[in-house]
């Protein structure tokens, strides 16, 4: 098996911590030979781990991609609104690209990136990692085997977890749609993708409701302060940053704002960064709960619910078919047969890789697709991702318009017309 060479653009949690470890675990398959990262500490740390010489370490993607083509693959894990530029340039340089989700918060950019992949005859794989996990692959297999008959309806709950939403979507990088993406895109495009994949039919109509119900200044406790470290009510607040980031269980999350996980460094980070701010005064505007209703070709329906106010961070799915029902959560899947009344329990072995094995799974699959590339699309190609992204874009449009029902075909047609007019 030949070793593939890759460059990494964006050495943050997903790039350096999610996908790049595959090269350390399987060095005969993948090696990183260059990195572009604005943070000098992250850049140096990644270079040291992967043995990258200083001349191939860059402070931004522009000089890296100005070089003659260095590798087979570009892994792009910049922030949501910074995907378009490096992706277009990498495709133009004939890199196969693995791009962190979402593609872009701009539908026009999504369409242009998909077209650029076609024009350059390169793979553009979007990191919808759920499709690559044993859990979701098993569910797909049960459906394909006909064990529950034809799908009538799916209910999918994304329980974000009260600390995850506070960390990432109230205090963190994805807390404001003006600088990142709406919640339905930044967090839940995974779910739009997996629902489309399981249904295997085009989505026709979408409606959505949701709001920022809790995490705003109107709910700030009396006597609270701008920062947890200065707050008199911090000891009785469920979202206390010091309690969370200094605990043994969750201390690792502090790695998002400090490189050294010592108590003094974490406390300093809570004084200096947004991760120490009050959750009711964090300049966040993305929703903390949202529901999406979908109708698919053939008449099947789906209901998706994202909520930040859950104790566990998990997904739960219920698929109702004409011959049976499937329920799944964590590592357990249960299949019910209407005719025999048989209940079958399927236990998924626990995975060490992130996202239930999806992080390593997508890298392994992507490398295999690059090695044997002959013009085929990947499992999570840009084309497939554009379709599920359109559901998310339409859902957000519906939410902002009071739950208006959006016809997906008409919505896509309008986007295509705008794209043509802008050329």
UniProtKB/TrEMBL annotation:
Q: Indicate the segments forming the Gfo/Idh/MocA-like oxidoreductase C-terminal domain, all copies.
A: 140-399
Cite the Gfo/Idh/MocA-like oxidoreductase N-terminal domain residue spans from the record.
Answer: 5-126
**Which GO molecular-function terms appear in the entry?**
nucleotide binding
**Matches recorded under InterPro entries:** Gfo/Idh/MocA-like_OxRdtase_C, Gfo/Idh/MocA-like_OxRdtase_N, Gfo/Idh/MocA_Oxidoreductases, NAD(P)-bd_dom_sf
Q: Which SUPFAM superfamilies match?
A: Glyceraldehyde-3-phosphate dehydrogenase-like, C-terminal domain, NAD(P)-binding Rossmann-fold domains
In terms of superkingdom, the source organism counts as Bacteria
| Homology family | Belongs to the Gfo/Idh/MocA family.
Q: What is this protein called?
A: Gfo/Idh/MocA family oxidoreductase
């Amino acid at each position: 098996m030949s070793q593939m060479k890759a460059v990494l653009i964006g050495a943050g949690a997903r790039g350096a911590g999610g996908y790049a470890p595959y090269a350390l675990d399987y060095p005969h398959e993948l090696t990183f030979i260059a990195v572009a990262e604005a943070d000098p500490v992250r850049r140096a740390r990644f270079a040291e781990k992967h043995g990258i010489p200083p001349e191939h370490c860059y402070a931004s993607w522009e000089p890296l991609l100005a070089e003659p083509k260095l590798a087979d693959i570009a892994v792009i894990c910049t922030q949501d609104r910074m995907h378009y530029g490096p992706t277009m340039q990498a495709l133009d340089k004939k890199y196969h690209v693995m791009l962190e989700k979402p593609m872009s918060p701009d539908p026009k950019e999504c369409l242009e990136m998909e077209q650029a992949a076609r024009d350059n005859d390169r793979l553009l794989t979007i990191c919808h990692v759920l499709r690559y996990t044993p859990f979701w692959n098993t569910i797909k297999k049960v459906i394909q085997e006909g064990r529950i008959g034809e799908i009538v309806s799916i209910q999918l709950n994304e329980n974000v977890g009260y600390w995850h939403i506070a960390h990432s979507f109230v205090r963190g990088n994805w807390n404001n749609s003006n600088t990142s993406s709406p919640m339905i895109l930044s967090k839940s495009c995974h779910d739009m993708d997996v629902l489309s994949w399981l249904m295997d039919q085009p989505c026709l109509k979408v409606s959505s409701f949701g709001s920022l119900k809790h995490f705003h200044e109107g709910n700030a406790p009396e006597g609270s302060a701008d920062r947890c470290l200065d707050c008199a009510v911090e000891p009785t607040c469920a979202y206390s940053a010091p309690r969370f980031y200094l605990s043994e269980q969750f201390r690792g999350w502090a790695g998002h704002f400090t490189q050294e996980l010592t108590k003094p460094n974490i406390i300093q980070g809570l004084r200096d960064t947004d991760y120490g701010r009050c959750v009711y005064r964090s300049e966040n505007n993305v929703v903390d709960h949202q529901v999406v209703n979908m109708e698919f070709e053939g008449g099947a329906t789906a209901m998706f619910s994202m909520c930040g106010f859950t104790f566990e961070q998990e997904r739960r799915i219920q698929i109702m078919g004409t011959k049976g029902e499937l329920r799944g959560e964590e590592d357990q899947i249960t299949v019910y047969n209407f005719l025999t009344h048989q209940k079958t329990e399927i236990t998924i072995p626990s995975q060490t890789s992130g996202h239930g094995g999806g992080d390593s799974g997508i890298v392994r699959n992507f490398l295999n697709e690059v090695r044997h590339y002959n013009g085929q699309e990947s499992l999570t190609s840009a084309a497939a991702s554009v379709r599920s992204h359109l559901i998310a874009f339409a859902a957000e449009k519906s939410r902002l318009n009071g739950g208006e029902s959006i016809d997906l075909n008409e919505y896509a047609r309008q986007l295509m017309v705008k794209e043509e007019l802008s050329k």
